[in-house]
Amino acid sequence: VEASIPEPQRDAWKKHSAQGFTTKEQFEDETVRHVETTLARSLFNCDELAAYSGASLAFRDRLVIEWNKTQQRQTFADQKRVYYLSLEFLMGRALDNAMLNVGLKDVARAGLKDLGFRIEDVISQEHDAALGNGGLGRLAACFLDSMATLNYPAWGYGLRYRYGIFKQEIVDGYQVEVPDYWLDFNPWEFPRHDITVDIQFYGHVSRHQDEDGKNVAVWEGGEIVDAVAYDVPIPGFQTPTTNNLRLWSSKASKGEFDFQKFNSGDYEASVGDQQRAETISAVLYPNDNLERGKELRLKQQYFWCAASLYDIVRRFKKSKKAWSAFPDMVAIQLNDTHPTLAIVELQRILVDLEGLDWVEAWGIVQNTFSYANHTVMPEALEKWSVPVMQNLLPRHLQIIYEVNSQFLQMVEKQFPKDRDMLRRVSIIEESQPKMVRMAYLATIGSHKVNGVAELHSDLIKSTIFKDFVEIYGPDKFTNVTNGITPRRWLHQANPRLSELIASKLGGYEFLTDLTKLNKLEHFLDDKDFKKEWQEIKYANKVRLAQHIVNTTGVRVNPKALFDIQVKRIHEYKRQQLNILGVIHRYLTIKAMSAEERKKLAPRVSIFGGKAAPGYWMAKTVIHLVCSVGEVVNNDKDVGDLLKVVYIEDYNVSKAEIITPASDISEHISTAGTEASGTSNMKFVLNGGLIIGTCDGANIEITREVGESNIFLFGNLAEDVEDLRHAHNYGSFKLDPDLAKVFDAIKDGAFGDANRFTALCSSITDHGDYYLVSDDFNSYIKTHALVDEAYKDQDAWLEKCITSVSRMGFFSSDRCIQEYAEMIWNVEPLVPEQRNGK
Ligand code: CR1
């Protein structure tokens, strides 16, 4: 308040208030000004990177102007806000998205052309913001886009990692990891050195009497690290609403920085402290669906939760409302269990710092939080060792024990004498060492828990949270099927298709109401439309083929069927099934006569995705794909009938090139393991069909597009357990076609067989946990159906267009509306539209 400009001077202020450009002339002014003054370059010294920087700064100015107004509007409206806590935000590039969302891409294209640049070259200078591993982080990014587009007063909170997900290089057919230092020049963030929060670690808890004679816990000692805010503006599409993504960066605290050491000449030691503090936000853990229980990870989690909660509570306190109103003003969404400590931190703030009574505080906490579960894979469920937590967060562990004790008393009343129930649902697992089960803590501390696709939401109720359904009743558990933003994943990634659709539907309304796509079915007999659709797909395949030859040297025929699997490498996602199927195809081609070969549809099998650096089996799969490619791509018998390529360093910007170029894509996880999947939605929305198992969102995609427009195969989730059990009790029979594939590998057809022994024997000798053999026959038969179907190009095209027209459900706008209405209870804050929109 003290910082606001006095009333008499405000007119002068308003007169000079920044406007941001709207015309081409103004865009050029702003871009050149930034190149010359912000970057200190000139027309004799302006390369594409400088042009990118200048254009980005011009757009950033625009965003930040709307960002400021949005913040003011939200403060003024004094209504409930939603806070989305996620350890990952996989944003990708920002410039193209900003241009499209504010509706000035054409202006920028023309302006850049005047200044001597092609817009595509400028856009491609940007380094991806890759602060995530895979689906969970990209979902958070799609949600930010939808929340802003739908005008929700929403904030994202995350960590500003100095190193995002590593860059993958493929060297001699092996993955090599290179650090991703992405902050060299990042015009999209605003450092807020004035917004700094002290975060405490270690120390001990003592008890004191306060003025009223109440016994209070005081957390003392230990060390302090500073959290500094960096803000990233998130523009909505066709709306002035520009929300905030606040990322915290760690820094040695001014109070802590050891001036003693510094003054006594031990400069190195004092700098060492500084570096140790900065380590907290230094690096994103590169595991997808795997938790390793490292102390630094727990430090990251607390650092980020505590800083975010401090910020949220401070904002609430400005409203001067009673604490009981907190859940009416604040909804906090936990993206998986990573931010579960926020529950404990809020209870600590309310009880220890604000003096609320325990029960009242806990009621506020439960009404504030909601938790989305993203996996049932046991190795991904977070558990923290009690001794580690005791040391790092002594007061939080006490609070967890107290929460647990009250919870267990409640359960005991409900299920008297059921000792086993108490053991099963306790937040503390009685193992050696004891462990804190974060998914249980998140469930107990939230008013709603959701899964991310129907099957997954059913599965969590019958497996990991079965007892909790009995305790709380089924209404606490719900489903919100994932979605994707059509702005990035159609309009931005596939501009020609977006334009064609708009020309048929009479405008771009489908981008904010994706169900409007259903009108496309009226054009199934429109020859020109279909021809243009096909040409666009072909052009997208040519673009990908160009990328493939540039990066791998392999020349692929864009007329061939493009069969794509891009996602993190994981045994449950079964890239091994795919490559073993490819080998089967290769062996089949080799055994064919020249006549038979003529009838076969040429294929390009495209793989991409990173393996966690410590995930040896996943790295072996990459190596097998590359080794098969080496042989197949150089086999004269095969020619264009089959090519196998590995696209290096799959990330968001590559996905924007890859997704529009598929004929078929693979979503082939063992049934019951993939919570949802979201690339399945992206591929179908871009006019590709999919081959998949009855898993995750594939099931709902099938329901929407119709069974005849998808290639489903494999065992069902309900049969998986029995099959695994049978394997373990001696009834495992290797599929005969798969046996031939293994024989070829063992004969050295793809190089030294020893490198693949463990991969093969995980299937043949160690229980085939992911049912590769059980599903193999069904998989290759279904691929034969794909070949057949592709021969009838007209029918194929009709399937694609029909599918696209039925994808409306999978917009992340629909998800956000469901979260807002069913879980958060927040209302949009619709601004007065400006610029005639
Ligand atoms: C799931 O594996 C899902 C995303 C987003 C992943 C994937 O199927 O689409 O979440 N889960 O909901 C995950 O990363 C830690 O769990």
From TrEMBL:
EC class, as a word, reads transferase
**Could you tell me which Pfam families the record lists for this protein?**
Phosphorylase
PROSITE patterns membership: PHOSPHORYLASE (PS00102)
One GO CC term, this protein: cytoplasm
CDD domains (alphabetical): GT35_Glycogen_Phosphorylase (cd04300)
- In this UniProt entry, the residues modified to N6-(pyridoxal phosphate)lysine are 682
| Catalytic reactions on record | [(1->4)-alpha-D-glucosyl](n) + phosphate = [(1->4)-alpha-D-glucosyl](n-1) + alpha-D-glucose 1-phosphate
The UniProt GO MF terms for this protein read: glycogen phosphorylase activity; pyridoxal phosphate binding
Co-factor requirement: pyridoxal 5'-phosphate
- Could you state one GO biological process linked to this protein? glycogen catabolic process
Free-text function comment from the UniProt entry: Allosteric enzyme that catalyzes the rate-limiting step in glycogen catabolism, the phosphorolytic cleavage of glycogen to produce glucose-1-phosphate, and plays a central role in maintaining cellular and organismal glucose homeostasis.
Give the UniProt family note: Belongs to the glycogen phosphorylase family.
User: NCBIfam families under this entry?
Assistant: P_ylase (TIGR02093)
Q: What is this protein called?
A: Alpha-1,4 glucan phosphorylase
Q: Which organism's genome codes for this protein? A: Imshaugia aleurites
What lineage is on file?
A: Eukaryota, Fungi, Dikarya, Ascomycota, Pezizomycotina
